[in-house]
Structure of Probable membrane transporter protein:
Amino acid sequence: MFDLIDSSMFIEGSIIAKYLILGVFLLVIASFVAGYIDAIAGGAGLILIPAFILTGLPPQLALGQEKLVSTIGTVAAIKNFVKNKSVIWSVVPAGLISALAGAYVGAKVILLLPAETLSMVIVGLLPVGLIAATVKGKIKKSAENQVKTNFLAIFVVCFIVGFYDGFFGPGTGSLFIIALALINKFGLLQASATSKIFNFSSNIGAFVAFAIAGKMAYLIGIPMIFGSLLGNHIGSIHAIKTNGEIIRKVLFFTVGIMMVTLSVKYFTGA
């Protein structure tokens, strides 16, 4: 009898372990895809946050985990853009601190919300992030090669976008790109490259707030970080060579499906 019980428990444990391994593997794939897309057009959170929630992570932990993976993953893209001399450093000081401060404040605000309310906020704000990630393609033709510097505008915009990053996150990179293209007339590659510096800063601000609140799962985040690093590396190289139009189309389709799935999950309680 005891042998039978032990055998049953062993089989059940093996099944659970297989599901855990499969779940982590799928999250690593999601992290790779998110990193690749983020390096080109922004929008890693549009993939990661729904993926984390659909695997069972609580909303606040999902937001914190996204910051853990995206913050470190972005380093690979920054390295390639800096090496390619695509970053416009003259505007970086103005936006770096304001983006970090804005994200920290935004994260502190979101941590005050109950999980049920936050779930609805995520479903409601996903379309905002999706629009930010796709509209960017419409303004690229108006971007000029003549870079303009407006430190006050950059400071204010980076604080506002940084707050959004800490409060929610998806599409933040694209919002930074839009601001740089419209306000400072950056070319698309310059805007994408420089936005990574600001996005990294805002990620750090939100990361600190979530880490202090204990909303991180570091152990399962390690393999996802490697997936994100690889995705960012390949995506940034692709961004330097192409305009990434196909990526925006794939992003729109993928996130559209995830939005429907999440909406059904939270509105029906399934």
Remarks:
- The mean pLDDT is 77.
- The chain has one domain: 2-268.
- DSSP finds ten helices and no strands in the chain.
